[in-house]
């Protein structure tokens, strides 16, 4: 019996370790794929601001619309800006060779970026741009140093004059009693049309959508997983009772 419990605990340890893992100096972001409104807003941001350069070639418009509860006509009118058909993959018109020539390297496909980098990294990266005149696009990123991507949502989110406070908890200055690091930027090079908290929410929605995009069946897998665990729990009771019956006469 002790050996069986040891095996079960050993099987659970990698899952716990994976759930507890995460990069340092990042802001925490907990995805919620049950929040359909958040996913719809994220899809809108992704289509309007990301798909000019980045594809999602392992996903289909039709599947996204179905999962997010967006009617076909509404999706085609507002979230497909090319002549692509509703059932096609989410590719972009920009040729990879030309993109590499223009940007130095072709912008990566974003279908699996949340699975590769993790939601904390993505959420922090999207909010970590700051002014840096030494860079080709005039911006750098506190999470991804020497980033080659421009800050495409600068008009909405603004641009920090210095590296923003990412992964830092607000502190109280003992000399003045003022809260330091409560705002993401100490000074703004460009002020956006959104309030900082509003922009944070928009980047949460975008990250939430990218997490969904990386594994559309995640919610179904979690739901099925609950039933599997219940089955294993019930089966364990019968296995234990049967084991005790087999060994009760052996001393």
CATH top level label: Mainly Alpha
The unreliable regions are 4-23
- Listing every helix as H and every strand as E from the N terminus to the C terminus, the arrangement reads HHEHHEHHHEEHEEEEHH
Largest sheet: 2 strands, antiparallel
Using only CA atoms, what is the Rg?
Answer: 24 Å
Q: Alpha-carbon distance between the termini?
A: 15 Å
CATH architecture: Orthogonal Bundle
Strand content of the residues, in percent? 5-15%
Indicate the structural class: mainly alpha
Helix content: 40-55%
Across the major sheet, the strand order is 1-2
What would the CATH topology be?
Cytochrome Bc1 Complex, Chain D, domain 2
Compute the number of strand runs: 8
- Report the mean per-residue pLDDT as an integer: 86
In DSSP terms (H or I, runs of 4 or more residues), the helix count works out at 10
Total domain units: 1
Task: Report the principal-axis shape.
Answer: globular
CATH superfamily: Cytochrome c-like domain
Q: Can you give a write-up of this model?
A:
The chain has 251 residues and is mainly alpha-helical. The protein has one domain (35-242): Cytochrome c-like domain (Cytochrome Bc1 Complex, Chain D, domain 2, Orthogonal Bundle), CATH 1.10.760. The chain is built from 10 helices and 8 strands. The strands form 4 sheets. Strands 1-2 form a two-stranded antiparallel ribbon. The chain has a two-stranded antiparallel ribbon with strand order 3-4. The longest helix is centred in the last third of the chain and has 30 residues, at 218-247. It is globular, with a radius of gyration of 24 Å. It starts with a helix and ends with a helix. 26% of the residues are buried. Residues 4-23 have low confidence and may be disordered.
């Amino acid at each position: 019996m002790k050996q069986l419990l040891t095996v079960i605990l050993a099987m659970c340890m990698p899952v716990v370790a994976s759930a507890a893992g995460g990069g340092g100096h990042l802001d925490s972001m907990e995805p919620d794929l049950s929040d359909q409104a958040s996913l719809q807003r994220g899809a809108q941001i992704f289509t309007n601001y990301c798909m000019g350069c980045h594809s999602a070639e392992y996903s289909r418009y039709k599947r996204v619309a179905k999962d997010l509860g967006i009617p076909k006509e509404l999706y085609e009118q507002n979230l497909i800006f090319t002549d692509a058909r509703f059932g096609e993959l989410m590719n972009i018109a920009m040729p990879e060779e030309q993109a590499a020539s223009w940007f130095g390297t072709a912008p990566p496909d974003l279908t699996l970026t949340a699975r590769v980098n993790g939601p904390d990294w993505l959420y922090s990266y999207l909010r970590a741009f700051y002014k840096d005149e030494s860079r080709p696009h005039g911006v750098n990123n506190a999470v991804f140093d020497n980033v080659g991507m421009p800050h495409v949502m600068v008009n909405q989110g603004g641009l920090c004059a210095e590296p923003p406070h990412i992964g830092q908890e607000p502190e109280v200055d003992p000399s003045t009693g003022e809260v330091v690091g409560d705002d993401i930027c100490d000074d703004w090079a460009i002020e956006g049309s959104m309030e900082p908290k509003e922009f944070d929410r928009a980047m949460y929605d975008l990250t939430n959508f990218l997490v969904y995009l990386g594994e559309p069946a995640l919610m179904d897998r979690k739901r099925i997983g609950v039933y599997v665990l219940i089955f294993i729990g019930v089966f364990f009771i019968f296995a234990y009772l049967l084991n005790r019956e087999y060994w009760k006469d052996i001393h």
